Amino acid sequence: MMSAATIQQPQPRPVAETARLAVSIRDLDIRFGDKGNEFTALSNVSVDIAEGSFVTMLGPSGCGKSTLLRCIADLVHISDGSVSVFGRPPRQAREGRDFAFVFQEATLLPWRSVIDNVRLPLEVGRHDKSAYADPMELLALVGLKGRENALPHELSGGMRQRVAIARALVTKPRILLMDEPFGALDEITRDKLNEELLRIWRETGTTIVFVTHSIPEAVFLGQHVLMLQAHPGRVKEFMKVDLPYPRALAMRDTVDFIKVTAHLRALLEECI
Ligand SMILES: Nc1ncnc2c1ncn2[C@@H]1O[C@H](COP(=O)(O)OP(=O)(O)OP(=O)(O)O)[C@@H](O)[C@H]1O
């Protein structure tokens, strides 16, 4: 069964249960544009994400999901409030390679083989000793063993996205930020990668923050779903998904799963 803690007024500070925080966001405002012509993308957002947790993010188009992810990654200037990543500012977290990003498009270098694409982050910039000494291990983790010498154009979209995930994991980031990573894939491939991502999460212990437009995907993957509402972007609800792991795709046909998705669907309609 689901337990949904509706946000209290004023602005809530939803906290996941486990002790150590991977990300702590306090009273965050993001404004774009010049003074006098400013657009508020995010307003008064506060949320805590526990280390090792899997948080999915939902909300109507333009509500600021990508912007929030980009704040954690030090890709957006913070107008007001604060973001801390393992207790330090995003800039330091970026320099320390605390996180890695996976986008909707795999953005692989077309002239490099699979294994050379995966190795790329080890060749640029600093990385510590915790990085994978043997990126072949990662190819096994994402189910691409045997395809290490293939070029990106020889792979399917799902395979390319697996390479992108392996590349993101090669430095052993503590947080994986994923912005609609499976949004461009067909349903069957997406389902398979959903199951594989849960396995990878279990095996690596990486904290994952995952943006999606799919309610079933958000529920299937997440321990918590962060729902944002639009105009301006703000937290609507930070909901714990009380469904047990390991999760298999058949779970999506259960009454408990359908209840959670129905709740989120109703909530999403309120957010537009
Ligand atoms: N660099 C920027 N400059 C100006 N406006 C921006 C910038 N980045 C984002 N925005 C605006 O901020 C708002 C939130 O954008 P964002 O991409 O975060 O939304 P989203 O929820 O991820 O949308 P979608 O679901 O459609 O991908 C949008 O109105 C967008 O136009």
TrEMBL record:
InterPro entries in the cross-refs: AAA+_ATPase, ABC_transporter-like_ATP-bd, ABC_transporter-like_CS, ABC_transporter_ATP-bind, P-loop_NTPase
- Keyword annotations from UniProtKB, A to Z: ATP-binding, Nucleotide-binding, Transport
Q: Which domain of life is it from?
A: Bacteria
**Which GO molecular function annotation, any one, does this entry have?**
ATP hydrolysis activity
Keyword Nucleotide-binding attached: yes
- Domain ABC transporter: residue ranges: 25-251
Output the Gene3D superfamilies linked to this UniProt entry: P-loop containing nucleotide triphosphate hydrolases
* PANTHER family, per the entry: ALIPHATIC SULFONATES IMPORT ATP-BINDING PROTEIN SSUB, TAURINE IMPORT ATP-BINDING PROTEIN-RELATED
Q: In which family does this protein belong, per the annotation?
A: Belongs to the ABC transporter superfamily.
The protein in question is named: ATP-binding cassette domain-containing protein
Q: Which organism is it from?
A: Rhizobium lusitanum
